Amino acid sequence: MKRRAFAALLFSALAACADAVPPPEIEIAPALRQIEARVVEWRFDPGTLDSPALAAEWERVLRQALDKSKLFGGGGRRLVLNARLIRLERPGFGLDMTARAVAAYRLYEDGRLLREFQIEGFGLAGIREENDGPERARLALRRALRDNALRFATELAERGLP
Length: 162
Description:
Blueprint: H1 2-16, E1 35-45, H2 52-69, E2 72-89, E3 97-109, E4 112-125, H3 133-159
Parallel strand pairs: 1-2
Antiparallel strand pairs: 2-3, 3-4
Helix pairs in contact: 2-3
């Protein structure tokens, strides 16, 4: 009986720590060509996103994607990045859950719009990854935001700035 109680206590303690584990780092190849500019101001608008944790996750992965891609070479141009989450489609009930994130990105220099992007990202979470339905949905949402940020970094690297 004591062993079962100890095992239950240990399991509940470990389960409580599960949310404290940080998400994995973004993996993105460095950009082939750098933009001779630097982002001096970041503006994030989570739109209708009702979860501060997901909004913070989106901001974190976007900064990380741009930093790890080494896209900005730190030249004399000073840019403002305005990122707005337009739509986040939460997955419905199912074994495999797919989420969709649509965001608009605008890059400004001295108040003048340089580039505008509308990026769509997808995230999939399967039953083998997470048994709990709400946790599986949360995982799919996080992956959709992450995919959106990576696609933005890739698109900006391909198109560059005028």
